[in-house]
Structures are given as structure tokens and as C-alpha cells.
Here is the input.
Amino acid sequence: MVHRDRRGRRPTRFAEVDRRTRRMLVPAVAITASPRSEFGKGAARKLRRAGQIPAVIYGSGAELVHVTLPAHELGLALRTSRVVFTIDYAGALITAKPRDVQRDPVRRVIEHIDLIIITKEEAAERGAIGDAIRATEAAATEAGMDPAAAVAAMEDAIAHGESASDAADHALSDVREKAEEYSAANAHAAEATAEAPAEGA
Here is the structure.
């Protein structure tokens, strides 16, 4: 028999929750970009020897910009899947994500990266989901429940079209309801144990 919650949704397995949570909790990495004025393979090799990676930033109707990014910071950031960058460039902050990463086929070092600008709407949605997940996990932990189960309920609600905030509210409601049921069951068990005659009495 498949157990469902009070809204008729099938629980998600914890392994699925962990994978989906990692995908939704997108880290934002601050990085500084410098303007790029020299082009060509020779110039690119020179930049890489100096610890800089050639890059382009484009999207959302903005003009394509040629920049360089610090190789070490970029390499560390790209170890995390679905990373988002907050790029400090020419006094402005640009939110962008990797679109294409070119690597040396043998050494696997980064040679060039394309970054696409994230719209304010997409950034807000990502932030709202991340905030909702963190709030849900914290509330579940405080209630003594498995946070993965609460996140599963929240993600299922989002998958059914609910907003991040509504999904978090419903997940928290589920968590509190289960916590109350668990507490009541424990209290009942304790009372039953206390009322039971001592063995051998």
C-alpha cells in the first residue's frame, strides 16, 4: 500500500530529496571580472599563464561583454553543480550562470567560459526556493522531525504548482501536525506504561 499525505501526495524517497535539495539550493559565488582588450590564442594563453580565464557575459538583452575571471576562484566555484555567480564588473553587479565551459582535453584546465545573465525574476525564484528549503529544514529540526521529509513535502507542493512560500507553509504545517501526533502517541504510551501493574506485583 502506498501511503500518502493529507493532500493525497505520495512521499518522495529521501535519496530523491537529497539530490533535489542540492539542485535547488543554488550557491551564489561572488567573483570580480576585469575587462578584456586583447584577443586571439596568444593573448588567451598569456592570460591563463597570469591566472586569468577569458570569458564572455551575455543574455537578457544586454550587450555581450568580454572579460577575464580569476582562474583559481573560478575553478573552485565550478566544482559545485548549478553554481550562480554574482559578478562585480565595472562598478555593477551581474548575476549569471555558466552556459558553456571549455577545458583542455588532456589537462582539463579551464580555457574559456560563457556566462549567461540570469533575469531578476529567475534570481528571485531561485532565492525564494532556497529560503523556503532552509526555513523548512530548520522548523523540522526544531520539531524533532526528519528535515528531509519536510523538504520532500515542500518540493512535491512546488511540483504541483504551489509557490515556494505556500509550499513551505504547507510543509511546515505537515511537520507540526506529525510532531503533535508523535508527541501525543508518546504521552499515551507513557501513561499506559505508568498505569500497567508492575511485573510480579
User: Anything to note?
Assistant: Residues 1-7, 9-25 have pLDDT under 50 and may be disordered. DSSP finds six helices and seven strands in the chain.
